[in-house]
Amino acid sequence: MTTYAKPPVANGANTAQSLFSDPDTWSAYGAQWNSGEQKVLQCCAVRDETHDVKTFIFRCAEFSAISFEPGQFITLSPIIAGQSVARCYTVSSSPTRPFAFSITVKRVPGGAVSNWLHDNVREGDTLLASGPAGSFTPVGHPAAKLLYLSAGSGVTPLMSMTRASFDMAARLDIVFVHSARTPIDIIFHDELSQMQTSMPGLRVLNICEGLGVDTDWSGPIGRLNLAFLSEWVPDFKEREVFTCGPQGYMDAVKSLLKQGSFDFQHYHQESFDIAVLDTEPLLEQPSILDQREDVFTVTLSRSGKTFSMPGNQTLLTAAKKAGAIVPSSCSQGVCGTCKTAVLQGTVEMNHNGGIRQREIDKGLRLLCCSKPTSDLVIDL
Ligand code: FES
User: Fold this and answer.
1) Pick from 104-113, 165-174, 177-186, 221-230: least confident
2) 344 in the same domain as 238
3) Is residue 241 located within the same domain as residue 304?
4) Range of lowest pLDDT (69-73, 128-132, 256-260)
5) Are 209 and 222 in contact (CB under 8 A)?
6) How confident is the model at residue 38 (pLDDT cuts 50, 70, 90)?
7) Are 224 and 255 in contact (CB under 8 A)?
């Protein structure tokens, strides 16, 4: 009889039952993992993509199918050194394959969660996650001609879009221009090349800043600029553009498109570096314009706790200061992790797509981007 070694237990992750014993595989068939719900994920496999990028393949521990749009992200909340730390990661796989899905993660200096994932998560380990969420998606922006521009691990949401188009046999004209530091840093190089050979509408171009150790590289060297784009994609002004990468790269892309008189109604970019950065927790930026000095009383309905807070502070900051445990991640109104019902009172909320209108109609608010305009009772 074959026996299988128990997978190693990651620090802060729990190892559930062996992947080779799944009698419940079909019991939850048809169930979905929807936006805002927390699920336990189980790691099915870890794959090296480059020397510092790994793909982690997960499934919901109880076999729900993830329901997301290509380009959206999930929020992982591993326990690291005894603390739950939340980070958003774009799903790199396609929503057409919803049972086992992946994130693709680069090691980054100071990247608390990214580096922890690299060093600790193995097949069989389990992690808590919420999501999926995000507004960087082609859904709702129908276009026959697309231009994907990515740099570094900003490739992940665009890879999800490309894989989805491939699986759907979509007849789309896609040009995918990816910028990498050196040839060995190109993520998904082989898979995109293969897709290109069997998907007539897909054209992939990689550009490297330098050669690094790969002296055989015969592709373009340098940084993306208007001359390069005009030569390779002369009809770029007719395309719906989706871009993701470090902020400096996206600023450069915007500037070159501006030079090329591109119509920005057809431009989309990831609203913050979800796919790219995992540094220290994203800090809330107080607005220097916001000088309101009103003070409001907030009551937490579950604990009965009450505290006072100024009107120029977010509910997330104030609730955490008051000792409330509030799940949060992006602090930018994007990920949806801090969604909470406001039971009484009013707030001013400036979100970035992390909540839907129907949820707002039900009284939910994102605490990270909501400030009180009256005394409140919230569902915490
Ligand atoms: Fe991400 Fe509030 S923490 S929306």
Assistant:
1) 104-113
2) no
3) no
4) 128-132
5) yes
6) confident
7) no
Q: pLDDT-derived band of residue 278, with 50, 70 and 90 as boundaries?
A: low
79 alpha carbon to ligand 1 midpoint, in Å?
Answer: 18
Q: What region, left, alpha or beta, does residue 250 occupy, with left being phi > 0 and alpha being psi -120 to 50 degrees?
A: alpha
User: CATH no. for residue 23?
Assistant: 2.40.30.10
The confidence band for 198, taking pLDDT boundaries of 50, 70 and 90, is very high
Closest listed residue to residue 33, CA positions, set 128, 113, 112: 128
Looking at residue 217, which CATH number applies to its domain? 3.40.50.80
For residue 86, give the nearest of 362, 354, 371 by alpha carbon: 354
The C-alpha atoms of residue 318 and residue 316 are separated, in whole angstroms, by: 6
Is residue 284 situated within a structural domain?
A: no
Decide if 2 is inside a domain. no
If you write DSSP's letter for every residue of 240-286 in order, what string do you get?
A: EEEEES-HHHHHHHHHHHHHTT--GGGEEE-SSSTTT---SPPPP--
Same domain? For 267 and 149 the reply is: yes
Quick: pLDDT tens for 170-188.
999 999 999 999 999 999 9
Best residue for ligand 1 mutational test, from 284, 314, 328 (most atoms within 8 Å of Cβ): 328
Spacing, Cα 56 to ligand 1 middle (Å): 23
281 lies in a domain?
A: no
Output the six-digit token pair for 154: 């900003």
Q: Containing domain of residue 206, as a range?
A: 145-276
C-beta of residue 87 within 8 angstroms of C-beta of residue 329: yes
110-123 as b/e, with b when 16 or more CB fall inside 10 Å? Answer: ebbbbbbbbebbbb
Place of tokens 């759907």: 168
pTM of the model: 0.77
Give the count of domains, the chain.
Answer: 3
- pLDDT > 70: percent of the chain: 88
Examine residue 98 and state whether it is found in any structural domain, yes or no: yes
Residue among 73, 317, 329, 359 whose CB has most ligand 1 atoms within 8 A, to mutate: 329
Domain of 338: which CATH number?
Answer: 3.10.20.30
- Can you give the pLDDT at residue 285? 35
